[in-house]
Each structure stands twice: as C-alpha cells, then as structure tokens.
Amino acid sequence: MIDQLLKMADGPLQDLLSQSGMSGTESTASAIEDTFGSLLKNKAQSGDLSAIKEMFSGSDTSPQSPVIQNLAGDLSSGLMDRLGISSEQAMSLAKTALPLLMNFFNQRINEAPQANEDIMNSVVKALQGGPGSGGADILGSLLGGGKGGGMDLGGLMNMGKGLFK
Hints:
Layout: H1 2-7, H2 10-19, H3 25-46, H4 50-55, H5 66-83, H6 87-109, H7 116-128, H8 135-143, H9 153-163
Organism: Algoriphagus taiwanensis
Protein name: DUF937 domain-containing protein
C-alpha cells in the first residue's frame, strides 16, 4: 500500500531530481520510492511510527526536522546499495527527496474526506500487518493483503478521489 501511495509522488520526485541535474531520474525515483517504502514498513513493524505520523500530519515537514534527519541515514544506506553510488551522493539524494515525499502527503491529507488521524492510523495498521476496518481494509487491499475488507470498489474510488485530488 505505501508503495502505491509513494508511486503517486513519482512525477514531482522525477521533476525534483531532473532540476537537481540527475540523470536517469526515472530509475533513481523508483529506487528512492522503493527504498523509502521498505524503510517505512520496517519502522512501522518495529513500532517506530514517528515518520508515518509526520508524513500524514497535515503540517509541513522542514528539511531540518528530526524525522528527516533520522530517516536520511537509513535511506542513503539503501540508496548506496541499490544505485551503487557514494555515501555523499546517497545522502544528498536522501536529503533532497525526503522533504518532498513527506510534504507531498502532508499537502494532500488536509483535503481528504477522512480525518488526518484516521488516515494515518489506517496506514499504520496496514504497514504493521494488523487487522483493521474501514480505511485500514482499503489500504490493506491496495497492498494485496487485505483479508476481509468491507469496502466496495466505489468506496475505494471515493477515498482515492478525496485523498489525491
């Protein structure tokens, strides 16, 4: 589910990378999204929800925020492995991409028909692999792991329209 949500930020992320003079922006953006998604899943499953809470808080995330600083090291390590780049290049990418990704969702969350906290809780439940209802079932079904989701296709479409206008 988080992977699919992150794919929605693909265009802005590619634009940012292109403006930064990066070549191969599509593959680099994909590597950033995949690595960040895995990082968020691991953090949620270990009980560290700070990044997810910040990502769906509805408030702007500063590039100097503690959440960005904490995520940058882990993201850059994953990017070094995935892209075969130096630690300096990976850290630069991480510090460029993280604020964009965090704020991409923060800017849209306030437009959603559900309360910010409900959406964030649904994302957390889905990432942790726990059962849920309503939004958690929707998000779980986006991952392909929703067991017994009570939402029909129309409900899913309405949530999607509200969250990502």
